[in-house]
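Incident log, structure service

09:12 report received: a user says their structure output differs between two submissions of the same chain.
09:20 pulled the input from the user's history:
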Amino acid sequence: MSQIQFGTNSRSFDKFYDWFHIGACAVAILLAIASFFEPGHSMKLFPLIFLDAAALNGVLAYARFRSANRSTHRLSGLPFALVCVALLILAFICGKVVWA
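09:34 re-ran on a clean worker, output below:
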């Protein structure tokens, strides 16, 4: 099994990026299906949904920061990083409220 190295090798990062999106979308679909099957317990899944969305935005922000050559394009990852932080805060708050 080959080891994933992110240095200057963009093909390995692109492979990780694609597989991460496939996995995160599968998790989002499973969480959506689980929330419809058990409507009474669907509140317990909201922190996980926020965490999944934060992970997607975090990886997208990292990809934007990493791939841009000029500083103006590099700043295009900043809104995604801010959304990631906001979703992490929402996941934490929602987890405290629902799971406590």
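09:41 both user submissions now match this output. Likely a transient worker issue. Closing.
09:42 reviewer note: Residues 10-37 form the longest helix (28 residues). Helices lie at 10-37, 46-67, 71-74, 78-99.
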